[in-house]
């Protein structure tokens, strides 16, 4: 038998190294596919599931609260009339500046005196208007035309003219 040359030894060693790497890789892949998920991944799954459950519960609770506060089809006009009637009653000291039309379900203020602006401010406060509505009214000028905002199932619309003052209507 002839002695092995260095080249032959290297080739044999390389071949066996490749085979060992392939076996190790196969074993690793088999082991990887049969092992259970790591603890960190399990925690991630539990936190995700818990977060989704909490989000779902909040959505259900939020829709239940919205449904209980929104007027039904039969009582919508009654609720609106209640808000308008309460606002007119609360602002009775400005009755000379307001006109309340029960059939049209609206109250209007027209004029440019301080009392008219005070009546509008009172009506907004009594009807629960967001602060942005009064801010929009204060910033309205003659070039902007008619403006409007909605809340409580009703709408406030207004415009302003430097000679005539404010025209404000709170209606359904």
General description of the model:
- About 6% of the residues have low confidence.
- The chain is of the alpha+beta class and 172 residues long.
- The termini are far apart.
- Helix content is 56%, strand content 17%.
- The protein is rod-shaped and about 125 Å long.
- It is built from five helices and five strands.
Characteristics of this structure?
alpha+beta
Backbone structural class: alpha+beta
Cα-to-Cα separation, first versus last residue:
109 Å
By DSSP, the count of extended strands is 5
Main β sheet profile = 5 strands, antiparallel
**Rg, nearest Å:** 38 Å
Envelope shape: rod-shaped
Mean pLDDT rating: 78
Strand order of the largest sheet: 1-2-5-4-3
Beta content comes to 15-25%
Q: Give the % helix.
A: 55-70%
Describe the secondary structure blueprint for this structure.
Blueprint: H1 6-34, H2 39-69, H3 76-90, E1 98-101, E2 106-111, H4 114-126, H5 131-139, E3 147-151, E4 154-161, E5 165-171
Antiparallel strand pairs: 1-2, 2-5, 3-4, 4-5
Helix pairs in contact: 3-4
Brief overview:
With 172 residues, this protein is of the alpha+beta class. The protein contains 5 helices and 5 strands; from the N terminus they run αααββααβββ. The protein folds into 2 domains: 7-65, no CATH class; 76-171, no CATH class.
């Amino acid at each position: 038998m002839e002695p092995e040359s260095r080249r032959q030894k290297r080739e044999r060693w390389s071949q066996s190294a490749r085979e060992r790497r392939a076996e190790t890789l196969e074993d690793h892949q088999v082991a990887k596919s049969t092992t259970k998920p790591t603890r960190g991944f399990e925690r991630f799954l539990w936190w995700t599931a818990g977060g989704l459950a909490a989000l779902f519960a909040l959505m259900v609770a939020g829709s239940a609260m919205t449904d209980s506060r929104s007027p039904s089809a039969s009582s919508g006009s009654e609720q609106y009339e209640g808000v308008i009637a309460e606002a007119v009653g609360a602002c009775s000291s400005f009755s000379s500046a307001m006109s309340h039309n029960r059939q049209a379900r609206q109250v209007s203020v027209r004029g440019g005196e301080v009392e008219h602006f005070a009546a509008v401010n009172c009506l907004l406060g009594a009807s629960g208007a967001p602060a942005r509505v009064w801010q929009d009214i204060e910033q309205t000028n003659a070039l902007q035309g008619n403006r409007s905002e909605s809340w409580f199932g009703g709408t406030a619309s207004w415009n302003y003219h430097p000679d005539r003052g404010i025209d404000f209507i709170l209606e359904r």
